[in-house]
Design goal:
The structure holds 2 protein chains of 2 kinds. By secondary structure, chain A is mostly helical. Chain A has 3 helices and no strands. Chain A is elongated. Chain A starts with 6 loop residues before the first helix and ends with a helix. The longest helix of chain B is centred in the N-terminal third of the chain and has 22 residues. Among the domains of chain B are: 129 residues, no CATH class; 94 residues, no CATH class. The chains are: A mainly alpha, B mainly beta.
């Protein structure tokens, strides 16, 4: 049975994925790790907020249908 | 909101905070082939040294002005008619290749403007470039100038040394300044560095902050303004010292001495002229003064020896000690006593809280003591007026042979004891005694309030109190 969708897990997943990719690129000499992190870390908040909005909107029709 | 979401939110903001902090201090922290750099600035890690030299012809009598930063400046006398400029460049870069590439851009700027040769580097230009702003590099000048050249140096973060010049004007910070064998005037300003000025032929003006000052063999008049550092001066002309938060030591002044000191002791010795010393929160020790001496100290002791002329001393919360004073003495002490020996021209002393003792005096003496006693021993036959008053203490006078005076002694309440051979008492009552010795003469008035008055022969007293 598949685990229910979790926003927290999704955010952590994207964060780890992004951090790993950045670190890899930094080690390969393609990007400046600190500069990239400093620029893109607020994207975590944006991503999280977007996921929360999607979750809230997807729950509303279900409630209407049940009443 | 669920606890897991709150935890995740804290985690995200914590991560962001760490990244932003690391970004802010990124120039001062680094890990790599240069080692671990922690808040070390740009002058850190591997460095490479390169030399550049050039010679500049100058007309006779030309002055030299050197402007530099982050490196030392040394100026010495060389051949006539030309200035030798040696520049040592120290570049902080990870590799020799990078360092050499940068060092090639650092050049000597030397231009003759009128009768002044201005020497410097293109540091400002390099530091204004974005690609070289973070590169640390030092520029050390070694100059040889024609004999008898006037030298001006403006330097920061580097040692300055000028030897054998006609005159010198140095402004320096964050390292030491040393000027020696200057024929004429010297003007020095230093911050955060020690200063040595030696063998100065003319006047010296020195302003120093946060560093030790040392003067030796200054023929002209010297003025020193020092804060947060000790001042030491030896063999100078007339000397004025303004100092705070440091010791002042002066020896061998040919002329007058003036010292204004705060929060530090003052020591002065062998001054041919007059001396005026003002201080606070530090003792003043003065010896061998050729003319009048005036010492005013708050919260510090005064010790004077071998003063040829008059002495005026004033202090509080400490004692005054005088020895061998050739002129008149005036002393005021609040909350302290006075001990004096060999006063040749009398004394006027006011003290409180401690005793006043004069061992060997000539001339008129006037002593007033609150909450203390007075002990008086003339140096020879007592023939001059004496007025002594003490409250809550005894007045004791020792009378040498051959003395001539009229005595008026009072102790209220207290006891008067007079036991001197030849002293005839003309009136005695409880607590008073009047009389004369040697046929009378000067007035000797002794008064004690809440204490005794005792008049004894000098020899007896000396035997009792060897």
């Amino acid at each position: 049975m598949a685990a229910p969708f979790s926003i927290e897990r999704t955010v952590i997943g994207f964060a780890l994925l992004g951090l790993g990719v950045l670190w890899l690129l930094a080690n390969a000499g393609r990007v400046d790790l600190l500069s990239a992190l400093r620029t893109w870390w607020p994207l975590l908040l944006v991503l999280w907020g977007a996921l929360e909005l999607v979750a809230a909107l997807s729950r509303k029709p279900a409630r209407r249908g049940g009443s | 909101m669920k606890a897991s979401k709150i935890g995740l939110l804290i985690l995200v903001f914590g991560f962001g905070g760490i990244v932003e902090t690391a970004w802010s201090v990124r120039q001062n922290i680094g890990f790599g082939p240069q080692g671990c750099r922690v808040l070390a600035g740009r002058f850190y890690g591997s460095s490479f040294t390169y030399d550049a030299k050039q010679t500049q012809s100058v007309p006779a009598g030309a002055a030299i002005e050197v402007t530099n930063a982050f490196g030392g400046v040394t100026v010495r006398a060389g051949d006539a008619g030309q200035v030798g400029i040696a520049l040592r460049k120290v570049v902080f870069r990870p590799t020799e290749e990078q360092a050499r590439a940068f060092a090639d851009q650092v050049r000597i700027d030397a231009a003759l403007e009128g009768n002044v040769l201005r020497i410097g580097t293109n540091r400002d230009e390099l530091e204004n470039r974005s690609e070289s702003r973070e590169v640390g590099f030092e520029t050390h000048f070694e100059l040889t100038v024609p004999p008898a050249t006037a030298v001006t140096v403006r330097n920061e973060h580097g040692r300055v040394e000028v030897v054998d010049a006609a005159s010198v004007d140095v402004t320096s910070s964050f390292d030491a300044v040393r000027v020696q064998r200057i024929a004429g005037a010297a003007r020095l300003q230093s911050r955060h560095g020690d200063v040595l000025a030696e063998e100065i032929g003319g006047d010296l003006s020195l302003v120093a902050r946060h560093g030790r000052v040392e003067l030796r063999d200054v023929k002209g008049r010297a003025t020193v303004d020092s804060e947060h550092g000790d001042v030491s001066a030896a063999r100078t002309g007339g000397l004025v010292v303004r100092a705070s938060f440091g010791d002042v030591g002066v020896e061998g002044v040919r002329g007058d001495l003036e010292v204004h000191s705060q929060h530090g002791p003052v020591t002065a010795r062998d001054v041919s002229g007059a001396a005026k010393i003002e201080g606070s929160f530090g003792d003043a020790r003065i010896a061998k003064i050729g003319a009048d001496l005036r010492v005013e100290v708050a919260h510090g002791a005064i010790d004077v020896e071998d003063a040829s002329a008059g002495v005026i001393a004033e202090t509080s919360f400490a004692d005054v000690t005088l020895a061998r004073v050739g002129g008149a003495v005036q002393v005021k002490v609040a909350h302290g006593g006075v001990t004096a020996r060999a006063l040749e021209k009398g004394a006027q002393i006011n003290a409180s809280g401690e005793d006043v003792t004069i061992d060997g005096f000539r001339g008129e003496v006037r002593v007033e003591v609150e909450r203390g006693g007075a002990n008086l021993l003339p140096a020879g036959a007592l023939t001059d007026p004496v007025w002594a008053s003490a409250s809550h203490g005894a007045v004791r006078l020792q009378v040498p042979p051959g003395s001539r005076f009229v005595l008026d002694a009072t102790a209220q309440p207290g006891e008067v004891e007079v036991d001197v051979p030849g002293l005839v008492l003309t009136s005695t009552t409880a607590g008073t005694a009047k009389g004369e010795i040697g046929g009378g003469g000067a007035s000797v008035h002794l008064q004690a309030r809440n204490g005794e008055v005792r008049v004894q022969p000098a020899t007896t007293a000396a035997a009792k109190n060897p």
